[in-house]
From TrEMBL:
Keywords: Membrane, Transmembrane, Transmembrane helix. The chain crosses the membrane at residues 6-29. Residues 99-131 are annotated as: Disordered. One of its GO terms (cellular component) is membrane. InterPro entries: LemA-like_dom_sf, MamQ_LemA. SUPFAM superfamilies: LemA-like. It is a single-pass membrane protein. This is LemA family protein. Belongs to the LemA family. The keyword Transmembrane helix applies. It is found in: Membrane.
Length: 131
């Protein structure tokens, strides 16, 4: 009788170990399936985000093209004005300053340079000289 109880306990222990292994294997498969579904869900989310961003990209490209068109038109107009000024200066070589001033719209061009100042004194924002 003692031997039969030992064999029965061993069989029950083996069955319990096998049952735990099957449950652990099943849980591992469920975990892997969930990881697989999560990975593909993340891919779908990224694809939707990209799809949602395409209209923004198209609108940005259109705005950039409009800006470039305006820049090109401004450059062409400036070049045409410069060429008109050149032809006016070539037609009247004795009065270049008057031709230049009519194009600039001011009485002098010296003060138009960036950083030019009429005052020789230092300003509070100027850098000290190095010694």
């Amino acid at each position: 009788m003692g031997l039969a109880i030992g064999v029965l306990v061993a069989i029950v222990a083996v069955v319990i170990v096998l049952l735990v292994m099957v449950i652990a294997g099943y849980n591992g498969l469920v975990r892997a399936r969930n990881a697989y579904k999560n990975a593909f869900a993340q891919i779908d989310v990224q694809m939707r985000r990209r799809f949602d961003l395409i209209p923004n990209l198209v609108e940005t490209a259109r705005a950039y093209m409009a800006h470039e068109r305006q820049t090109l038109e401004a450059v062409v107009n400036a070049r045409n004005m410069a060429m008109a000024g050149l032809s006016a200066a070539q037609a009247n070589p004795g009065i270049p300053l008057r031709c230049n001033n009519s194009r600039l719209g001011s009485s002098g061009s010296t003060a138009r340079w960036a950083g030019s100042s009429r005052s020789p004194k230092a300003t509070p924002t100027s850098r000290p000289t190095r010694r």
